[in-house]
Structure formats: C-alpha cells, structure tokens
Amino acid sequence: MNKIKLILCVGGIVLLSGCATPAQTALAGAIGGAVIATELNQPRQVISQPRQVIIVPPRHRPLTCFAQFIGHNAHGRAIYQQVCR
Predict the structure, then answer these.
(1) Does pTM surpass 0.85?
(2) CA–CA separation, 14 vs 25, rounded Å?
C-alpha cells in the first residue's frame, strides 16, 4: 500500500511540473515530500506467527417448561399455556 502511495505521489509531481507554475510545482513537491516522509517515518509492523484460536461452544442451559396461567374459558375452567425456555 505504501508503494502505491509513493508511486501516485511521484506521478502527480511529474504531471504537475510540466503544466504548472514554479510556485505550484514547489507546493506539489512540498506536499509530496511530506507524504513520503510520513510514510517513511511510520514504524514497521512486525508480522508474527498467527495465534491459535480455540473456540469453546457455549454452555446450554437445560430446557425448562412450566404452565403459565392465561385466564378462564366460557365454562369457568382455568386455561394454561405451556411455556418452555
């Protein structure tokens, strides 16, 4: 990725130097230099060995069911609904 940025920056400076005023060319050179310096001053990333990932399946709770009171029917009898969680 850094090489692509460097190539684009240098290419932009080359293109601007042909059709820009000397002040614009100097500005493009300063911006390009700043980008290059920033990329060069960043710390290198050390690529380490991939760590082994252990996937533990989740603990399943036992399924519990109970009767939940809903109400009464037309004959006055209690109505329950079985609920399982």
Answers:
(1) no
(2) 9
